[in-house]
Amino acid sequence: MKYDRNKAIAYANKYALSKNPEYYYFGGIGGDCTNFISQCLHAGGFDMVYDDFEGWFYVNPNFRSASWTGVEFLRNFLLQADAAPNGEIVGRDELQEGDIIFLNNGLRYYHSLFVSKIENGQIYVCAHSFAAQNRNLNDYKFFKSEFVHIKD
Fold first, then answer.
1. Which residues touch 55 (CB under 8 Å, ≥6 apart)?
2. d(Cα 94, Cα 48) in Å, to the nearest integer?
3. If pLDDT is split at 50, 70 and 90, which confidence band does 82 have?
4. Rounded to 10 degrees, what is the CA torsion of 44, 98, 109, 134?
5. CB-hemisphere CA count at 13 Å for 57?
6. How far, CA to CA in Å, does 34 sit from each of 30, 39, 93, 121, 148?
């Protein structure tokens, strides 16, 4: 399976400031950022992985994997899964459009961002919880960031 970054980016831009009615919005109960990232990856062509403990899937709000909606769970899934989607930590200069950024507050990873555009050395992201479309990464305040390149 080849990751179609253009489809994922188109999805991110379409739903950055709104909600896809096919998915529950978790904004009021812990945040929707990782749910949105998972939707983008799925729109880019990745099949869901139906495994209760090590999977990545969404059926409904009550039947989904922790990695579909949880920041640290998705990060761990992407970096450790044998199944796609998976990724690898890269440097800022290796980041590509369609990749993921995880923000850390010094204690834990608390927010995930979708890289929608890279232009003139600037990184722009789409996100949920705090709706953002092509927002400059420099606008965010965080202790550290981790760049995860999604493998094709």
1. 48, 49, 65, 67
2. 26
3. confident
4. -110
5. 15
6. 10, 8, 23, 25, 14
Please answer whether residues 145 and 139 qualify as being in contact, where contact means their C-beta atoms are separated by less than 8 angstroms: no
Q: Is the per-residue pLDDT at 1 higher than 70?
A: no
| Residue 128 in tokens | 């949920």
Is residue 5 within 8 Å of residue 100, measured between CB atoms?
A: no
Q: What is the largest CA-CA distance in the chain?
A: 42
Over residues 18-29, the mean pLDDT reads 93
Q: Tokens 């995880």 sit at which residue?
A: 102
Tokens of 121: 């050395």
Q: Note the pLDDT of residue 152.
A: 76
pLDDT of residue 30: 78
